[in-house]
Amino acid sequence: MPYTKNNHDELLFGYLLGTLPAEEIERLDERSVVDDDFAVQLRDAENDLVDAYVRGKLPAELAPQFQAVYLAPGTPQSRREKVRFAEKLRSIQQRPAAATAANVVSPDKEKAGTSAKRWSLFSWPVWQPQWGMALAALVLLAATGYLSMANHLLRRRAERAEADQASLRQKFQQAGSIPNSSQQENAGGKSTRHALDQLKIAAFVLVPASRGLNSLASITVPTGTDLVVLDLRLEGTEFRQYRVALQDPATREVLWRSPELEPQSRDREPIVSCALRADLLKPQNYLLQVYGLHADSTEEAVSSYSFRAKRAAGTGSR
Amino acid sequence: MEDTGKKSTRNWAATPSAFQRFLDWLDEGIPSNGEKYLEMRRRLVRYFEHKNCLTADDLADDTLNRVTRRLEEEGAITNVVPAQYCYTMAKFVFLEYTRRSRVEATSADAEIESLPGKSGNAIVQASDSNGELLECLEYCLQQLTSANRDLILEYYRGELKEKIQQRRQLADRLELSANALSIRACRIRDELEACTRKCSAGE
């Protein structure tokens, strides 16, 4: 067929016009849904087919078949609309560029007032400054979105730190390390809030040891830090809850265990986030073991994180 | 594949969590922000249109609804790729549709306009809404970004031989592969068609 680019287009046009054998049509029906590349080619081919018809470029022997498939009574209305659309698009394309801009007529809507100005302003070549401004606006929008998300995550982390602070306070009380006046503080609640406001937090991200990095991760805890927040990247999220245990790798002694933690998402990566008292971390190596919790509360080790804790220069305690 | 409880299936509505599970299953581990769902729906609509179904949109939605329900009932569908499963379900929905069409009176025929038949490459004379359609198309073109507007007008300009060369040059200029350019042009055209349709319907 003289109008086609190649045999593949013949196949596509034959499929669209229903001139292929039934088995072939069924095979292509399936490809049109399942095969990504074929689906794109088919959409393109259909548009070209319809355009060829409205431009009078379809061979005469195919026109009746086209009309039967796209225009006859009983065919889906969307097909007839497709042909009408192609006709109107062609009429716009045939106008000279200046006439096209000048003849733009819009229905009576608010945006129409600035349409001519917008058209002339943005009809310049792509490397004009307007594109730079548009790009800057996009970057600003993306940054705003990112900051909003980061803010939300920080708020959640602060809430978790607050819960951990309450738990820490309880442990301190149990250990008798808080003076009697703190009992009045807890009853009042105001001093607790004041203490939380002054909480110093250091946050770090750790990746599993299985990610092939030979060097030991290192975290440096600044002087005066109260709480260390660790975001542990997971390899997957097959569990609804996790627990983290801090171990001395030399003795395997468990130094600290987290409560049940729910996985979160950070930069499209799944993580669990835990917070522990900074004074738990001495300048030495540690192993963090993450366990997935089954419904019956049994634990299954899922990943481990090795790191070396360091203290910033100066005294490390409050 | 059999779909039991046809009446209840057609009336079944997906919960937000069921729908999200369906989206995640379609995504196959790579989040697409719903793009895969939209693309699958688009393909199913075209499939049903190609089968001359008058309610292609409804049938596509019915298909996806049934897949969502099956996924919710069975917890997982793991032995087949999502697109293949959707196609298989679509075939089943189409068979049901043809059986229904045979027994029901095709009342939709009464809604179909008949166009004047012309031989050869006739230009379609739609109706007295011709001018309105052109106005709507012009309006909808304005709603595109200037880059998309230029792309769509240039992509479909010219006759077949020069069109091929033109598209190649356009792809080079935009630093896109031919496939990517085709996808973008088709998407813009679909948007334009939908906008024009809404506008001429007075929405």
Description of the molecule:
The complex is a heterodimer of chains A (318) and B (203). Chain A is an alpha+beta fold and 318 residues long. Chain A is built from ten helices and nine strands. Chain A has a five-stranded mixed beta sheet with strand order 2-9-8-4-5, with no helix packed on it. In chain A, a hairpin with a 5-residue loop joins β8 and β9. The longest helix of chain A is centred in the middle third of the chain and has 47 residues, at 129-175. Chain A is elongated. The model of chain A is unreliable at 1-5, 100-119, 171-194 and 314-318 (pLDDT under 50). Chain B folds into two domains: 6-105; 130-200. Chain B has helices spanning 6-11, 16-27, 35-50, 56-74, 82-103, 130-143, 146-155, 160-174, 178-200. The radius of gyration of chain B is 21 Å and the shape is globular. The model of chain B is unreliable at 2-7 and 110-128 (pLDDT under 50). At the A-B interface, α2, α3, α4, α5 and α7 of A face α3, α5, α6, α7 and α8 of B.
Main β sheet profile of chain B: none
Number of strands of chain A: 9
The share of residues in extended strands of chain A comes to 15-25%
CATH architecture of the largest domain in chain A: Sandwich
Which stretches of chain B are poorly predicted, pLDDT < 50 over at least 5 residues? 2-7, 110-128
Question: Could you report the average pLDDT of chain A, rounded to the nearest whole number?
Answer: 76
Structural class of chain B: mainly alpha
Number of helices of chain B: 9
Which CATH class of the largest domain in chain A applies here?
Mainly Beta
- Report strand order across the widest sheet of chain A: 2-9-8-4-5
The largest interface is: A-B, 67 and 66 residues
Major pleated sheet of chain A: 5 strands, mixed
Rg of Cα set of chain B = 21 Å
Separate helix tally of chain A:
10
How much helix, percentage-wise, in residues of chain A? 40-55%
Give the % helix of chain B.
55-70%
The CA-CA distance between the termini of chain A, in Å, is: 86 Å
Shape designation of chain B: globular
The SSE order of chain A reads HHHHHHHHHHEEEEEEEEE
